[in-house]
Amino acid sequence: xxTRLAYQYVVLRCVPRPDREEFLNVGVVLHxxxxxxxDVVCHVDAERLHALHSGIDVDQVREALSFVxxxxxxxxxxxxxxxxxxxxxxxxxKAPRSTVLQPGPVHGGVTHDPARQLEHLRERLVx
Length: 127
What we know:
The chain is an alpha+beta fold. The protein is about 35% helix and about 25% strand. The chain has one domain (about 5-125). The protein is built from four helices and five strands, in the order βββαααββα. β2 (about 25-30) and β3 (about 35-40) form a beta hairpin. The longest helix is centred in the middle third of the chain and has 16 residues, at about 60-75. This is DUF3037 domain-containing protein.
């Protein structure tokens, strides 16, 4: 019987116009301490983003998501955040810091396979 592992995740939201409080889910970050796992999956639907705000810079959104990927991987191009432990990196990523790309609330669960769970969350929450 395989082990059930606790995990936490946040949905990354693109908020083109914070004054309207409209957003589109564009990614999910999942952290599983027991499996030493931290990863993100992203999907940017430019057409849907432009429907929320015709002037949005989609490349800027993609660049912000690329930074999240670098932090998850521990890539030195992400600076000090990438040099931290996985738990600290997740803490960094779940903290709001941008008006356009914002993390939602932290949720949790249990899984046998963090990578498969992340893909399931992407399909269910991002598209």
